[in-house]
Amino acid sequence: MTDKLTQDDIAPLQAAGWTLADDGEAITKTFEFKNFVQAFGWMTQVAMHAEKLNHHPEWSNVYKTVEVALTTHDADGLTALDAKLAKKMDQLAEG
Ligand SMILES: C[C@H](O)[C@H](O)[C@H]1CNC2=NC(N)=NC(=O)C2=N1
């Protein structure tokens, strides 16, 4: 099992707009797109990466907004997999 992230690992994610949950066990972010197709297209791309990583987001979509929470259930907290998926999500949202 991957080690838990330290505050030093989490700081750059917070700088990129991710919010640390009060219990420290998840990071959250709200992604806003131009329209539903952009939002759902992004979710589809992220889903392929999540499956490849075997690490899956908790998320919900309303029209052009996607609310995301990342945590590693197996570790009851944040691990490198969450950081990796968060970065991928940011990258795909920019492009
Ligand atoms: C059996 C399977 O490998 C595990 O359940 C994986 C699947 N996807 C997962 N996704 C997330 N976010 N956390 C996990 O602990 C996790 N575990």
UniProtKB/TrEMBL annotation:
Keywords: Lyase. InterPro entries: PCD_sf, Pterin_deHydtase. It is an enzyme of class 4 (lyase). One of its GO terms (biological process) is tetrahydrobiopterin biosynthetic process. Its EC number is 4.2.1.96. It catalyses: (4aS,6R)-4a-hydroxy-L-erythro-5,6,7,8-tetrahydrobiopterin = (6R)-L-erythro-6,7-dihydrobiopterin + H2O. One of its GO terms (molecular function) is 4-alpha-hydroxytetrahydrobiopterin dehydratase activity. The keyword Lyase applies. Belongs to the pterin-4-alpha-carbinolamine dehydratase family. HAMAP family: Pterin_4_alpha. This is Putative pterin-4-alpha-carbinolamine dehydratase. It comes from Loktanella salsilacus.
